[in-house]
Amino acid sequence: MIKLGIVDDNPQVLEDFATYFNGKSYVSELITFSSPHLVKKYVESKQRIDYLFLDYATSAPSCLPFIGQIKSISRHTEII
Fold first, then answer.
1. In terms of CB atoms within 10 Å, which of 11, 73, 74, 78 comes out highest?
2. Is the CB of residue 63 less than 8 Å from the CB of residue 56?
3. Alpha-carbon span 73 to 76, nearest angstrom
């Protein structure tokens, strides 16, 4: 079972992902975020995310520094 996070500023995209992944047996929890800042706060509070889908347009132009920050806090998180 995996804990899955999704970052997108479009509420419809987040809803569509939630609809798709909530029925999957391999997903133990789905967390949606409207901004990269919220993800950072989440992992800083020692919350685990196994896989994080990151909308590049939501976090650009700070996408690469953001990925580095998340990986330094939560090394096991795979960012897609």
1. 74
2. yes
3. 9
